[in-house]
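Session log. Operator J.P. requested a structure for one protein chain; no other inputs attached. Running the standard single-chain path with token output.
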Amino acid sequence: MDLRFATEVGVCHADGLFRPFASLIDPDPEIPDDCVTERDDVPQPVDTPKARLQQLGWMMTGRAFVSLDDGTIWHGDPDRDAGYELINSDLSSLAYVLYKVMAEAPTRRAELPSPDDWEQAENVVRADTQRWDPAPFSEADGLWSRYLDEYQLYH
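Structure written below.
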């Protein structure tokens, strides 16, 4: 696993949507403290039926993991029965989706966006992401689809 991408390029924390462990990346001293999760040790990898996973940090209501086998990104949510869910093909895809949900949020351009503004933003996020990586929106009830269903609540 190559975490240099996260350190050198960066992974958007998206207003707290994703908070990587400080022990796994070299956080930029210019970013606010709440953009990372302070942790001195590196969590132990977890063996799952899907893959051997290394926790990267916290994401939404669960934990974000990277597969030590192939670099895919997984989400584990204790409140869902699904166990571990594939959410991105790699770390760059995770970074891209986090960037897109922030960049396309209509609240960046309008104080009170209309429902049509939100629908257009969702369509742009889905279409642009699917050109990059089909995994994030491959499941209708997957993490990213659920997130966009409630997009307005987060921004």
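Operator note: The CA atoms of residues 4 and 83 lie 28 Å apart.
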